[in-house]
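Aim 2, interim progress: modelling of the S-adenosyl-L-homocysteine-bound target.
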Amino acid sequence: MVHFVGAGPGAPDLITLRGAQLLKNADVVIYAGSLVNPELLELCPPQVKIHNSAAMDLEAVLAVMEQAETAGLTTVRLHTGDASLYGAIREQMDALSAKGIDFDVTPGVSSFCAAAAALGAEFTLPGVSQSLIVSRMAGRTPVPEREQLAALAEHGTSMVLFLSAGLLPQLQEELLRGAYTPDTPAALVYKASWPDEKLVRCTVGTLAQAGRENQITKTALVLVGDFLGKEYERSKLYDPAFSTGFRQGADTNSRGD
Ligand code: SAH
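Predicted structure of the complex, ligand included:
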């Protein structure tokens, strides 16, 4: 059996209880060495065999999994954050299915959640934005034409950009071609939840400069949108006048959200 496990954003106590338990029972671990905190490997039993996937291609990863399976061993494939975002797990799962090897997936705390936590931010503020766009600049992995950042930026909604800290001047330009203005709040979050975490608040107009001044070129997220500003409306859910299925408010309006 192969268990895909989200390691969380970095701090070793941000893995889920289930993920930690799977590491405690693992015979073989393949971890994404570039971003997974190696402290997590201390959870593994002493006889565990550990592989760092930073130096492996897909075929090498699959070969380790297949060998372990033949030997009746349990493998944990440890991915950074949550594996459903830029985790390249689909190709592994499809290959395992084709080989008849069982697997399951344990979610993790994605870095975009850790970044919001570090900033004390809420992506979905009433009266500001009720949507979050998760995207990236095109790098060696292309982004489909219809998802070009300038087009996504037309919505002016809350946005979080992965894998783009090395392309801040281009990113800034793309964002400004959309609905954001040079004054729209933005933030760079470097290594959220790690000891050397860095938070840099700026605006869309000063994004590239902020990255340059703080020497942030990788392992960072870019957060953009008015949710980082000061203005918002109170929630309806906790409004004294508002009734829900759980609470009778001053009005007779009863809605489930
Ligand atoms: N699956 C991961 C993302 C992997 S892609 C997740 O859910 O977080 C790798 C990119 O994620 C990095 O280039 C960076 O943009 C972002 N990232 C991962 N961990 C991070 C962290 N602790 N702080 C800030 N950004 C992080």
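The first helix runs from residue 17 to 24. The helical segments are 17-24, 58-70, 90-99, 111-119, 149-152, 168-177, 207-213.
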